[in-house]
Design goal:
binds pyridoxal-5'-phosphate, Aspartate Aminotransferase, domain 2, 2 domains, four-stranded antiparallel β-sheet, about 400 residues
């Protein structure tokens, strides 16, 4: 008899987004005509920039032209895009060879697929609250999970200590859901820890484009020693509005060896077996992001999201509500006022001011009592939501 992967039974049912959808649908059914202000989504609200759209159109035309038509692309990524990404790192002082860059269909796909490189007996560490995919991908493959509490006392940025022991360590900075961002010394401690213990850091840099402050690393490879212990997973989803277009990239340095095996070479073997490459059209669109014109244009959207974050921070500051994130990050993570739990706060915002956010407890038990607001929403809705938030908790309007 065929036996399915029994580890799927161990997955906790994720009620978070279904429960949010059910509650908002029930509220709208009971209050027809009401409009909700969405600050819960992790999706972007602005379209692709002009440089990308032009490149996509040109690439579509190539596919209809006998002389320019492109068939299968190299499994690890088209050379023009791997080179453009390596040059983008080089502009920031990080030297990579294009062969260390792998083009993917997005960070989610990659975060799951990369686990093929590691034995199932390895333990995986997540800093909780955490992006749920880290947990579920490891449970599905039968790996033992360890959780390290990232509480308010550490600003949701815990440091490794002697009690920490794991083969694979997930780090996400700027963080989803907390918006917390590691500074250089903090991240260096994790790199040093990984090198001392032979662990591998899986560094999720999906939100790196939001970092502006000097001294905050955008890439793990800005840190000394990272090339012998880290893999970086990146995405154009939030950087350039590719959530529905799909493209990401992963960096595996040539020095990453374990048990006499080279992880970069193993990943080449994996990709050449398990994929036939990412669409030529999308890779051309992605390459446009790394041109000077593309870089300038994506900043226009990023600055809209940054302004949304400032509007939300202004409201929380005026209410004296504790939060982290919002600076160098698109998410704000706030302590629910008056000791409310995450879902009670969710219900109050929904029913009293028609604002939808994300209950922190949905990102793990450590998130109870916290709430995530996203700056990816519509600017006018974000301003209105901030005004209503202030009115709700003070009875006065925000200036
Ligand atoms: N990593 C984090 C921390 C995310 O928040 C997301 C998406 O929200 C992803 C990865 C997935 O990105 P992609 O759209 O490239 O699959």
């Amino acid at each position: 008899m065929m036996i399915p992967n029994l580890h799927y039974k161990e997955l906790e049912t994720s009620y978070l987004f279904t429960r949010i959808a059910e509650k908002t649908a029930a509220y709208l059914a009971a209050h027809p005509g009401q409009r909700l202000l969405h600050l819960g989504i992790g999706d972007v609200s602005l379209p692709l920039c002009g440089a990308v759209i032009r490149a996509l159109h040109e690439a579509v035309d190539d596919q209809g032209n006998k002389d320019r038509f492109q068939g299968y692309q190299p499994e690890c990524g088209a050379p023009f895009l791997r080179e453009a990404i390596a040059a983008h790192y080089r502009d920031r002082g990080i030297v990579l060879s294009p062969e260390e860059v792998f083009v993917s269909s997005g960070a989610s796909d990659e975060l799951g697929d990369l686990l093929d490189l590691f034995d199932r007996s390895n333990t995986a560490l997540v800093l909780e609250p955490a992006y749920p995919a880290y947990v579920d991908a490891n449970v599905m493959s039968g790996r033992t999970l360890r959780r390290l509490s990232a509480g308010r006392e550490s600003g949701f940025l815990p440091m490794p200590d002697k009690g920490v022991c794991a083969d694979l360590i997930y780090l996400c900075s700027p963080n989803n859901p907390t918006g917390a961002v590691f500074d250089r010394p903090g991240l260096q401690r994790w790199v040093d820890f990984a090198n001392e213990n032979g662990s591998i850091l899986l560094f999720d840099a999906a939100y790196e484009a939001f970092v502006q402050a000097p001294g905050i690393p955008r890439s793990i490879f800005e840190l000394e020693g990272a090339r012998t212990c880290a893999i970086e997973i990146c995405s154009l989803s939030k950087t350039a509005g590719f959530t529905g277009t799909r493209l990401g990239y992963t960096v595996i340095p040539g020095e990453l060896n374990r048990c006499g095996m080279n992880l970069r070479e193993m990943w080449v073997r994996n990709r050449t077996t398990k994929t036939n490459g990412v669409s030529y059209i999308l890779q051309r669109g992605a390459a446009a992001v790394f041109t000077p014109e593309g870089q300038e244009q994506i900043q226009e959207s990023l600055s809209v999201y940054r302004k949304n974050a400032r509007v939300l921070m202004g409201a929380l500051d005026s209410l004296g509500i504790w939060y982290c994130g919002g600076r160098n990050a698109p998410y704000l993570w706030l302590a629910c006022p008056d000791g409310m739990d995450s879902w009670t706060f969710f219900d109050r915002l929904l029913t009293e001011i028609q604002v939808v956010g994300t209950p922190g407890v949905g990102f793990g038990a450590e998130g109870e009592g916290y709430f995530r607001l996203s700056s990816f929403g519509d600017p006018a809705d974000t301003e209105e939501a901030a005004r209503r938030l202030v009115t709700l908790f003070t009875g006065r309007s925000a200036t």
